[in-house]
Design a protein that fits this description.
The chain is of the alpha/beta class. The protein is globular.
Length: 875
């Protein structure tokens, strides 16, 4: 920084807050923000400077484009502190509330802990709400000063417009670049639009949203003052390309440290083999060097293209480590000692028994682990904790880990593909950005391994391609995801060297039918009508033109046509629009007529929301899903097929299947390609039954469409060639089989072995916050609307069974703390079949249950007694 430094004493903040800060001087971008935020006149002419990742000195750029703020700075540079300063100063100056909204529950939980610690001892009240699919408790949030939410909950708040929303004096939106994400982006864009329309002051935080011109445009579109230090890092990053066993840095320098050593590295020419050799180099050579210099032991994150690759590379690396440890010279030279996980005092291994836990128990002693959605949540948390504590030194994972978990390491190394596609530049930058730990490392190292391209004949050509494509490339521009260019068209644009999307390209794609409207765009229009933001076509058009990022970025798009199309979909959810994105024609044939979510007033200009539309918003369903659930309640043919067999287990399985054909049902399942033909055969056999819930003609799948261009079965080929309802039907049938095992108390490990799956991949469906629990609850509320009370009861019961993973007879027992499905079944078998019988039990008698100590048994009995007392008082 040139001239004065900005000391925390200069900030117009409560003294207790300044006392809680562990430093005296602010970082450059923090200082630049505070000068503008607090209007510190004595610092107005100061230039706040930083050293970027290339070692150059730069000024923090400050440009005014509106009343909001947009802060762009590298990962781990203290952007959160800017949010805290703004939030606390706002609360000190005005009564009311402030909101912090982020993209992951893990992020919200982390911020909740940090802010709670920061305000400890003060009269400020803080609350987090992360129930993504419920509007319950929104009015109550107004009692709190600081409210932390996920994007979904924040949108629910804004759509409902509770009375206290008028007293919100600041909203911080973290990870603003998520607006370009196809899954979460439209929700965030809705939050931004509604907040702008309500004139809520906004602060946006991001690591990056593109190159410098893109960042400025983004700030303009957000009506925000830009604080730009996008290439600032607290720990400098050395980026390199790994070719065989040599690292080439972006300045052309070749590392002489990463070289072959007799007997140590694998004899391999593969890219992943080079990654394993690099990990060995970190484990042995760099660890020895760190110990000699009395420094922290280095760790490495290795990102590979699939979950199977993560597991297999962990096993192969451990195999090589064992071989090395058998060589006495290696053990002596490198002082590598395995650990006993049972002797780790800070954390114990989870009790969840899954197939992959056996593998982890074999790799972790050798400081190696893998991390992916194939693991259950408790095992993922266990791996993360051991890595943070330093017990694990190598993690193999897919790039998704870099987006959701804060696990910095000195080294990161990434494979250039995810599944079958090339790694995106943003994914590359996010992954290598984990390299370099503040407080521990003076330098971080982030690399990408070369996967040789056939069209590039020489080693030099390959190196140059990777340096240009990734290491020296600008960040990809972030665009609205409300209107999406089809993937194949995007690939075509990239091949033609077109990296920036403008009005002309969007209009051409629209003319050629290459744009697809995101389903959440229709839901957004529905929420505008319901929330009172706009109630006629012209008002909706004006709102979208003024506040929606899509039309701020692409102001030449035909807003009127797109809004009219959205209104038509809300009037008829099965209407074909934008390339029949969800196969609406087949849904109409299979389920009958759709159910409108809005209608028109007598004046023929004003729209009002119908009860089903309100339920769609309340339950967070897309319009098409709401209409499908309405068909479940009213279609006589479906109801006949549902109840033709009176067996409750059969009905439950049919309901699970029906819920799964809705567009909101998560469709990214993991089925081994080799198993696809056999599973498809089982599917065809079951749906050919005359009493299957949907007609065979609509959901039948020809085996030939599952064969890829190489002549092998492939789930990807099926997803590319089948109708949407066929894909949904197959996926729903498959997951309903797993769910049926789950609710009938089959142990996780047995489910995995029987169906050849990893239960971690399916956790998103089960549990209290799973997709099934959400959709079953939504369907039960729609059943109430259509006065189908029997169906509502079945759906509600099934939702509770999915949540707990048990049969109906022990369900009441599982709501007692410390009693899950396993202990509940043991209690039931001991004769404790209801809460009343447990209330009369003795601690000694029920402590026979495995894992239930006498102390825990006393607690369980006390809970049961309280429940019985409440029931008696109500009777």
């Amino acid at each position: 920084m040139v001239g004065k430094k900005l000391h925390k004493k200069n900030l117009k903040l409560p003294q207790w807050f300044k006392d809680n800060l562990s430093f005296d001087y602010l970082l450059p971008h923090q200082a630049a923000f505070c000068v503008d935020w607090f209007n510190l006149e004595e610092f107005q002419d100061e230039k706040f400077q930083y050293t970027n990742e290339d070692g150059d000195t730069k000024d923090v750029k400050v440009k005014k484009f509106g009343p909001n703020y947009f802060i762009v700075a590298g990962t781990g540079t203290g952007k959160s502190l800017i949010a805290y300063i703004a939030m606390i100063s706002t609360l000190a100056e005005k009564s009311g509330s402030v909101i912090y909204s982020g993209n992951y529950k893990a992020l919200i939980n982390e911020q909740f802990e940090e802010i709670s610690e920061l305000i400890k001892g003060q009269k400020l009240k803080i609350r987090r709400k992360t129930g993504d699919f419920s509007s319950r408790g929104i009015e109550d949030l107004g009692r709190y000063d600081i409210i932390l939410t996920t994007y979904e909950t924040c949108e629910q708040i804004l759509q409902n417009k509770p009375k206290w929303i008028e007293k919100v004096n600041l909203m911080v939106i973290d990870e603003i670049h998520t607006v370009g994400n196809k899954e979460r982006g439209p929700i965030l864009e809705s939050v931004i639009a509604m907040s702008l329309s309500l004139n809520i002051p906004l602060i946006f935080l991001s690591a990056t949203v593109g190159d410098e011109p893109d960042i400025e445009k983004f700030a303009k579109n957000l009506s925000a003052t830009l604080i730009d230090a996008h290439d600032y890092r607290l720990v400098p990053l050395n980026k390199f390309v790994l070719y065989e066993d040599l690292a080439y840095f972006d300045n052309g320098r070749r590392s002489k440290e990463i070289k072959k050593s007799t007997g140590r590295f694998e004899g391999t020419s593969s890219s992943v083999g080079a990654m394993r050799n690099f990990a060995l180099w970190v484990l042995f050579s760099q660890t020895k060097k760190a110990k000699k210099d009395d420094k922290r032991i280095p760790q490495i994150l290795c990102f590979v293209r699939s979950r199977n690759d993560a597991v297999n590379n962990s096993k192969r690396l451990v195999k090589r480590i064992k071989e090395l440890l058998e060589m006495s010279t290696i053990e002596k030279n490198f002082d590598f000692k395995p650990i006993d996980i049972n002797e780790i005092k800070e954390i114990k291994p989870p009790s969840t028994n899954i197939v992959l836990s056996d593998t982890l128990k074999k790799t972790i002693p050798y400081r190696v682990a893998f991390h992916s959605s194939s693991l259950t949540l408790d095992w993922r948390n266990y791996v993360e904790k051991l890595f943070k504590l330093g017990y694990i030194r190598v993690i193999w994972s897919t790039p998704t880990l870099s987006a959701g978990v804060n696990l910095p390491a000195q080294y990161t190394l990434i494979y250039p593909k995810i599944a079958m596609r090339e790694l995106a530049i943003n994914e590359y930058q996010q992954s290598i950005g984990r390299a370099g730990r503040p407080k521990y490392d003076k330098l971080g190292y982030g690399g990408i391994v070369v996967l040789e391209k056939k069209e590039l004949p020489t080693k030099e050509d390959n190196l140059a391609w990777y340096l240009d494509k990734y290491v020296n490339a600008d960040t990809e521009t972030i665009y609205s995801s409300m209107l999406m260019i089809e993937d194949r068209e995007l690939e075509s644009l990239n091949k033609r060297g077109i990296k920036k999307i403008d009005n002309e390209i969007m209009l051409k794609c629209l003319d050629y039918g290459k744009l697809r409207t995101h389903p959440n765009f229709f839901a957004f229009i529905l929420k505008l009508i319901s929330g009172g933001y706009a109630s006629n076509k012209q008002a909706i058009i004006e709102f979208c033109k003024d506040y929606l990022l899509l039309f701020r970025q692409f102001d030449e798009l035909p807003v009127s046509d797109l809004i009219e199309e959205a209104i038509e979909v809300l009037l008829d959810p099965y209407k074909v629009v934008s390339g029949e994105y969800f196969g609406q024609t087949m849904y109409r044939k299979a389920l009958g007529d759709s159910f409108p979510l809005i209608d028109m007033e007598a004046d023929k200009t004003t729209y009002f929301i119908r009860p089903l539309g309100e339920l769609s918003i309340k339950t967070y369903l897309r319009p098409l899903s709401a209409s499908i659930f309405a068909s479940l309640c009213t279609n006589s043919d479906i109801q006949y097929r549902l109840y033709i067999n009176k067996n409750e287990d059969v009905i439950a399985k049919k309901l699970l299947y029906l819920v799964g054909i809705a567009p909101d049902f998560y469709s990214q399942v993991s089925i081994p390609s080799s198993a696809v033909p056999a599973i498809l055969g089982e599917y065809e056999n079951e749906i050919s039954d005359d009493y299957f819930i949907l007609d065979y003609d609509f959901i039948h799948i020809e085996p030939s469409i599952c064969i890829n261009k190489y002549g092998r079965p492939s789930l990807y080929a099926l997803s590319q060639n089948a109708e949407q309802i066929q894909i949904k039907s197959f996926v729903s049938w498959w997951v309903s089989m797993i769910a049926n095992e789950w609710i009938n108390e089959v142990p996780m490990r047995k489910i995995e072995e029987k169906l050849n799956i990893s239960m971690g991949n399916y956790q998103t469906y089960f549990g209290q916050n799973g997709v099934y629990a959400w959709l079953l609850q939504a369907a039960s509320l729609i059943a109430i609307h259509f006065k189908d009370i029997d169906l509502r009861k079945k759906l509600a019961l099934l939702g509770r069974r999915i949540e707990k993973g048990c049969k109906a007879d022990i369900l009441p027992l599982t709501y007692l703390k410390y009693v899950g499905r396993d202990r509940g079944r043991q209690l039931y078998n001991l004769g404790y079949t209801n809460v009343e019988s447990i209330a009369e039990a003795t601690p000694t008698s029920i402590s026979q249950v495995k894992g239930l100590s006498v102390r825990l048994a006393e607690d369980v009995i006390d809970q049961a007694k309280r429940i019985v007392k409440i029931r008696k008082s109500r009777s």
